[in-house]
Write a structure and sequence with these properties.
heterotrimer, A mainly alpha (292), B alpha/beta (327), C alpha/beta (328), B: 327 residues, alpha/beta, Rossmann fold, C: 328 residues, eight-stranded mixed β-sheet, four-stranded antiparallel β-sheet, 33% helix
C-alpha cells in the first residue's frame, strides 16, 4: 500500500485527480514562494518574494486603480492599483502555512490526548475526554479576538487560537479509532508478547489510526483555510499592506458590485482550494477503504 | 482425575472464577450504593492438561470457554482461584515476567489476528521482541517458524492483506510457536476459514504437537473438530464444566444431558436427516437459575436440580455435573 | 408442477480494475416445496448468485452477461424495476446471514411483522385489520418456536439473542408467505443448538406451505441434512448438482468429494485429514476448469476449456472424468 499506488489510484478517479492537482499546485506553489519570501527576508532582499510574480504586489499606482481583468492584470487591480493576481499568489503561503500548522497542531495534540485515552481507558480517558469537552466549547472567533486584543494582531496568534479550538475533534477521533483498533486480536497478541501499553500504541495503534484519520485531516486543511479566511476577513489576520486572501475579500466588498473582481476573485480562489482538499480527502478515504 | 498417559500435568486450573461487572455505574450509582451486577463468565472451573496433550473446551457461545482461554494466557485476571503453568502461578500479563513466551494464543479471526500494516516476518517475530536475542537470530527464528507451518520465505516480506485466510491463520500459528511456548490456547482456530483449509490447519496442528511437543488448549463449538483433536474434553455450559473426561468417553458415551443434546444437535455427514433440537433458550448470564444451570432445558430434570447446583460426580473415569449420577 | 424459479445459463461479471467472472453458466430450477442447497466456500459465487437472482446486485460494477431468470411468469432480467419491487416480500423473500442488518433496530418486533402482514394483505387483496394482524403476529412467533410470544413481540431487536432475531426474520417470512425464500447462511452465526431449532422450524414451514427455498451455505453437512437437492459451486460455476443423498453419499466431482473428506470425522490417531490442497484464487478462473489447479484427478483437457455439464445418473457433473453424454 505504498505512496505510489495510492497516488496512482487517486489519479484514476477524475474527482480525486482534480483534487490532487489543485492541492499539489497550491502547496507546491506555497512552498516555493514561501522559501523565496523567507530568503528575501533573511537576506534583506524583499524583491526575491515577487521574482516569480507577474507584478510587484506592493506597488501602488493610483492611476491603475480598479481596473477589470485584462491580459496585463489577470484578475484586475485593487483600489490602490495593485495587481490582484500577484497579491493572491503572494498571499498563498500564508493560508498554506496556517492550514499546515493548525491541522498539524490539531493532529499532534489530538493524538497525544486521544490515543492514551482510548487505549488505557479509566481515569486517563475521563480526564482527557472532559478536557476535550471543555475546549470544544470555545468559539474560535471569540478566542482569536481575545488573544489578539491582548497580545497584538499577528497571524501567529490566530493560528494559536485555531489550534486550541481544533484539537478536541481530533482527540475524539483518535480515541474512537483507538477503541476500534483495540478490539482487534493483533493487539491481544502484542500484549501476549509482553509489549507495554506505550509500545503497543507506538507500534500498532498509531499506524492504524492515522490511516483512517489522514483523509479527514486532508479535508480539514480546506476547512482551516476557510476559517482562517474568515478571521482574516474580520481583520484578525496579518495587518495591511500584506495581502491575505480573506482580507482581500473584505476590502473588496466596499467596491462591490461595480469592481466585482476585487472581492469575488479571491473568494473564488479560496473556494477552489477548499474544494480541492475536499475532493482529495474524499478520494483518499475511498482508496484507503479499498485497500483494507 | 487420572489421565491415561504418564505425562506430567503442564497446566492446572483450580477453582477458577471470573466475574465481569454488568452495566456502567455512574458516580451517582456509587453514591447510593446500588448493587453491582455481575456476569458469571467462569464459575468454579477446575481442569488440568498433561504435556503434549490436547484438552478441548467444547461449548457454545456464553459457555465461558473463550474467557477461560484468555484467563489461562493472562489476558484476563482471575476473580478468584488459581492457574498454574508447571507449578508457577499465572497472573495478569504485566506480572508474568518469568512466564514470558511460555503461553501463546491463536485467535479465531485470521483477519484481525495480524496487524495489516506489519510485514509477515515482523508479525511472526513479535513474541521475541522482548527477548535478549539479536536481530538476525530473531529473524532466523521467524523464518524457521514460517517454514514449520508450511509457508515459504517469500511470504516473509509481504503484508497480511496479500495473503489468503488460510495463509493468515498459518502465520498466526507461526507467531504462536516462535517462542517455543509450553501451552498454546487456540480459540476456534478453524471456525472462520473454509472447510477445505480447515483440514490443512488441523493437520498442521497435530503434526506440530507430535514433532515439537506443544500442549494445546483448544476451544471449539464443533464436536467434529473436538473428536479429531482431543485427548481430553471438557464440555462447558454457562461458565461451568458439565462433563470432563477422555475424548472417547465423552463423545462415545455422553452422560450429561447437555452433552447428549449438543452432540445430537450437530448434523453428521452420514446422517441425512435433521437433528432433533433442544428446547428453550439459553438463559441470560446475568440472572442465572438457582440450581443446575441446565435445569430449565433438561429433559431429565428433577426437583433437586432446581434447588442446588450439582457437583462433579465420578462416573467410570469421567466427571459429570449431574444429579443423575449421584450414587 | 412447474418450477417457481428457473435459472438458465446465468453469467455475471464484476468489472472493477479487471474483470472477474463471478458467475458462469449457472442453471437450476426449484419447484414448490423443494429446498435447493447451494454449497460453496468463499469465492464460490454463491452469495453473488443469491443477489443476482433477486436482482439485488449493484450494476455497475456487476454486469449480467448472459442467461435468463424466470420467476413464475416474470423474466427478472427484462422486467421493469416497479415490477420487480412488487415481487419482493410476497414473491421472493431474502433472509441474510446477519439478522441485525435486516431488522429495523428502531421498530418493535410486533410492528415489523405487522408491516409484513400489511404488505401481504395489500398485494393479495385481503383486508388488513390491526387487531387480527396482532393475533397473527403471536401465531407466527409461536410457529418459529419463540416462547413468550407477546413479550418478545413488544421488544426491540437488540434486546433479543441472535438466534431469536434470526427466527423473527423467518416469522416475517411466514407473515408474507413468499413463493420463494432465499436464505444466505441464515444459521451460520447461531450456536449448534439454535441452528437445529431454526432448521426444524424452517423445514416445517417450507413443506407445509409449499414454499420453494434456496438455502445458501458453506456447510455441506448442514445442507445434506436439510436440503432436498444440492448444487456445489466453485469458481462461480455449478460443479455438481443432484439430490442431497447422491451428492453426500456418492459425490462425483473431485471438489465435492474433497469437501466431504475434509470434514473431521475421525480421531487424530487415525491419521491426517485428506483435504484439498492449495487455495482458491479468482486469477485462475476463466477459460479452464476452475478447480483444475487443485484437482487430484486433473487432465490436460481440464486446462483447455471449461468442462460442460454432463449427466451422470440423475445428476449433473461438470468434470471431464465423466461420461460422454452431454446435458441438453
Amino acid at each position: 500500500m505504498g505512496i505510489r499506488s495510492i497516488i496512482w489510484s487517486l489519479l484514476r478517479n477524475p474527482a480525486s485527480c482534480l483534487g490532487l492537482i489543485i492541492v499539489a499546485a497550491f502547496y507546491g506553489w506555497s512552498v516555493l514562494e514561501g522559501v523565496l519570501q523567507f530568503a528575501g527576508m533573511v537576506l534583506h532582499m524583499s524583491s526575491l518574494g515577487w521574482v516569480l510574480l507577474p507584478s510587484d504586489p506592493f506597488k501602488i499606482s493610483l492611476n491603475q486603480a480598479l481596473l477589470g481583468p485584462t491580459p496585463a492584470h489577470l484578475m484586475g487591480t485593487d483600489d490602490l492599483g495593485r495587481d490582484i493576481w500577484s497579491r493572491i499568489l503572494y498571499a498563498a503561503p500564508v493560508d498554506a502555512g496556517v492550514s499546515v500548522l493548525v491541522i498539524g497542531g490539531g493532529l499532534l495534540v489530538g493524538s497525544l490526548v486521544g490515543l492514551p485515552a482510548g487505549y488505557f481507558g479509566g481515569l486517563t480517558e475521563e480526564v482527557s475526554m472532559r478536557s476535550t469537552d471543555l475546549f470544544l466549547a470555545f468559539p474560535a472567533l471569540i478566542l482569536a479576538l481575545v488573544i489578539e486584543s491582548t497580545l497584538g494582531r499577528e497571524a501567529i496568534y490566530a493560528v494559536m487560537a485555531l489550534v486550541v479550538v481544533w484539537w478536541p475533534s481530533y482527540a475524539r477521533l483518535f480515541r474512537g479509532e483507538t477503541l476500534r483498533v483495540k478490539s482487534m486480536k493483533f493487539i491481544d497478541a502484542a500484549r501476549l508478547s509482553d509489549l507495554s501499553g506505550l509500545e503497543i500504541i507506538r507500534r500498532h495503534i498509531v499506524r492504524s489510526t492515522f490511516n483512517t484519520i489522514v483523509s479527514y485531516a486532508t479535508i480539514d486543511l480546506g476547512s482551516s483555510i476557510l476559517v482562517y479566511s474568515v478571521l482574516s476577513f474580520l481583520g484578525l489576520g496579518i495587518p495591511p499592506p500584506a495581502p491575505e486572501w480573506g482580507s482581500m475579500v473584505s476590502f473588496g466588498l466596499e467596491y462591490f458590485p461595480q469592481s466585482w473582481w476585487y472581492s469575488l476573485l479571491p473568494g473564488i480562489v479560496i473556494t477552489v482550494v477548499v474544494i480541492g482538499t475536499a475532493l482529495l480527502g474524499d478520494g483518499l478515504r475511498d482508496v484507503i477503504a479499498g485497500e483494507q | 482425575m487420572r489421565s491415561l498417559t504418564t505425562n506430567q500435568d503442564v497446566l492446572v486450573i483450580s477453582n477458577a472464577v471470573k466475574l465481569f461487572p454488568v452495566g456502567k455505574r455512574s458516580v451517582w450509582d456509587r453514591v447510593i450504593r446500588k448493587p453491582q451486577r455481575f456476569v458469571h463468565a467462569v464459575d468454579d472451573v477446575s481442569l488440568h492438561v498433561a504435556k503434549a496433550e490436547t484438552l478441548v473446551l467444547l461449548g457454545e457461545s456464553g459457555s465461558g470457554k473463550t474467557t477461560l482461554g484468555r484467563l489461562v494466557v493472562g489476558l484476563e485476571t482471575l476473580t478468584s482461584g488459581r492457574i498454574d503453568l508447571e507449578g508457577e502461578e499465572v497472573r495478569h500479563l504485566k506480572d508474568n515476567g518469568k512466564l514470558r513466551g511460555r503461553l501463546q494464543m491463536v485467535f479465531q479471526d485470521p483477519t484481525s489476528s495480524l496487524d495489516p500494516f506489519m510485514k509477515v516476518e515482523d508479525c511472526v517475530a513479535e513474541p521475541l521482541r522482548k527477548s535478549k536475542l539479536e536481530r538476525e537470530k530473531i529473524s532466523a527464528r521467524a523464518v524457521e517458524s514460517l517454514g514449520n507451518v508450511g509457508l515459504g520465505e517469500k511470504l516473509a516480506g509481504k503484508r497480511p492483506s496479500e495473503l489468503s485466510q488460510g495463509q493468515r491463520q498459518r502465520v498466526a500459528v507461526a507467531r504462536a510457536i516462535v517462542s517455543k511456548p509450553d501451552v498454546i490456547v487456540l480459540d476456534e482456530p478453524t471456525s472462520s476459514i473454509d472447510v477445505s483449509l480447515q483440514a490443512q490447519v488441523l493437520n498442521l496442528l497435530v503434526r506440530l504437537q507430535k514433532t515439537q511437543g506443544f500442549t494445546y488448549l483448544l476451544i471449539t463449538h464443533d464436536p467434529n473438530v473436538a473428536r479429531y483433536m482431543a485427548d481430553n474434553i471438557a464440555v462447558m455450559y454457562l461458565g461451568k464444566v458439565a462433563e470432563y473426561g477422555r475424548a472417547e468417553s465423552v463423545l462415545g458415551n455422553p452422560r450429561h444431558p447437555y452433552t447428549q443434546a449438543l452432540l445430537a444437535s450437530a448434523p453428521k455427514p452420514d446422517e441425512l436427516s435433521l437433528p432433533k433440537p433442544l428446547s428453550g433458550e439459553p438463559p441470560s448470564m446475568v440472572s442465572l437459575p438457582k440450581g443446575c444451570r441446565f435445569a430449565p432445558r433438561c429433559p431429565f430434570v428433577m426437583e433437586r436440580c432446581k434447588e442446588s447446583q450439582p457437583p462433579l460426580f465420578d462416573k467410570d473415569g469421567s466427571l459429570v455435573a449431574c444429579y443423575l449420577y449421584d450414587r | 408442477m412447474s418450477d417457481v424459479i428457473t435459472v438458465s445459463g446465468l453469467s455475471v461479471d464484476y468489472r472493477t480494475a479487471g474483470v472477474v467472472h463471478a458467475l458462469h453458466d449457472v442453471s437450476f430450477g426449484i419447484s414448490p416445496g423443494e429446498i435447493l442447497g447451494v454449497v460453496g466456500e468463499s469465492g464460490s459465487g454463491k452469495s453473488t448468485l443469491a443477489l443476482a437472482v433477486s436482482r439485488l446486485l449493484a450494476t455497475p460494477p456487476a454486469h449480467y452477461t448472459g442467461g435468463k431468470i424466470l420467476f413464475e411468469e416474470t423474466d427478472m432480467l427484462k422486467a421493469r424495476p416497479s415490477e420487480i419491487d412488487s415481487l419482493r416480500g410476497t414473491g421472493m423473500f431474502m433472509v441474510f446471514q446477519d439478522p441485525m442488518m435486516s431488522l429495523n433496530p428502531l421498530m418493535r418486533i410486533r410492528d415489523q411483522i405487522i408491516e409484513g402482514i400489511a404488505v401481504r394483505c395489500r398485494r393479495s387483496g385481503e383486508t388488513f385489520e390491526r387487531r387480527r394482524a396482532e393475533q397473527e403476529v403471536n401465531q407466527h412467533l409461536t410457529s418459529v418456536r419463540i416462547g413468550d410470544a407477546s413479550d418478545v413481540a413488544s421488544r426491540y431487536p437488540h434486546q433479543l439473542s441472535g438466534g431469536q432475531n434470526q427466527r423473527i426474520m423467518l416469522a416475517i417470512a411466514l407473515a408474507e408467505k413468499p413463493r420463494l425464500l432465499i436464505a444466505d447462511e441464515p444459521t451460520t452465526a447461531l450456536d449448534v443448538t439454535s441452528q437445529a431449532q431454526v432448521l426444524n422450524v424452517l423445514k416445517g414451514i417450507v413443506k407445509e406451505s409449499k414454499m420453494a427455498m434456496m438455502y445458501i451455505t458453506h456447510d455441506l453437512v448442514v445442507a445434506g441434512s436439510f436440503c432436498d437437492r444440492i448444487a456445489v459451486m466453485y469458481g462461480g460455476m455449478i460443479q455438481e448438482i443432484g439430490s442431497a443423498e447422491q451428492v453426500m453419499r456418492t459425490p462425483k466431482h473431485p471438489y465435492s468429494s474433497g469437501l466431504i473428506t475434509s470434514l473431521p470425522s475421525q480421531r487424530k490417531a487415525d491419521g491426517p485429514l485428506v483435504g484439498i490442497s492449495g487455495t482458491f484464487s479468482w486469477d485462475e478462473v476463466g477459460g479452464i476448469c476452475a478447480f483444475a489447479p487443485r484437482c487430484p484427478l486433473v487432465h490436460d483437457q481440464c486446462k483447455k476449456e471449461v468442462p460442460a455439464l454432463v449427466r451422470v445418473d440423475t445428476r449433473l457433473v461438470r468434470c471431464v472424468n465423466y461420461g460422454e453424454e452431454p446435458d441438453n
